[in-house]
């Protein structure tokens, strides 16, 4: 199998879209995170019901930020092939007092995520993510 020497201009644009989405989420800028999604976007997180449309994804993002007020995603890798981008992300955050997941407030959680994002007409129209949350000890 021959590896590409470089990405096409379209693949570079697709990487930029995926980064804009995650960086908006990381910076708690929900509008930025949503700005690169199609109105009918589908988000499939393994083990969860799919989310359909920007409103459901906005609710999911706001739920994460409410549950983990200090959440900040870090992009660790990003690869593109055609209209798909694989983005790897990690984070460590402290569960807040109003966590929606029912976990114990003050507990630190590490997240590892691999997400395949499909692009169409300059926007993300489908995301498939595998999310691994790891509960750490309660923050002292």
Descriptive labels:
alpha+beta, 6 strands, 3 helices, 140 residues, Nuclear Transport Factor 2, Chain: A
Q: How would you classify the helix and strand content by structural class?
A: alpha+beta
User: Secondary-structure element order, as H and E?
Assistant: HHEEHEEEE
Helical fraction equals 25-40%
Count of alpha/pi helices: 3
**Mean pLDDT across all residues, rounded?**
92
Domain tally: 1
Given as residue ranges, the uncertain stretches (5+ residues, pLDDT < 50) are none
Give me the count of strands: 6
- State the major sheet: 6 strands, mixed
CATH class: Alpha Beta
Report the β-strand fraction as a percent range. Answer: 35-45%
Q: Span between N and C termini?
A: 50 Å
Question: Can you describe what's shown?
Answer:
This protein has 140 residues and is an alpha+beta fold. It has one domain: Nuclear Transport Factor 2, Chain: A. Helices cover 28% and strands 43% of the residues. The protein has 3 helices and 6 strands. Strands 2-1-6-5-4-3 form a 6-stranded mixed beta sheet. The chain is globular, with a radius of gyration of 16 Å. The N and C termini lie far apart (50 Å).
Short summary:
It contains three helices and six strands. The protein is of the alpha+beta class and 140 residues long. It has one domain (9-138): Nuclear Transport Factor 2, Chain: A.
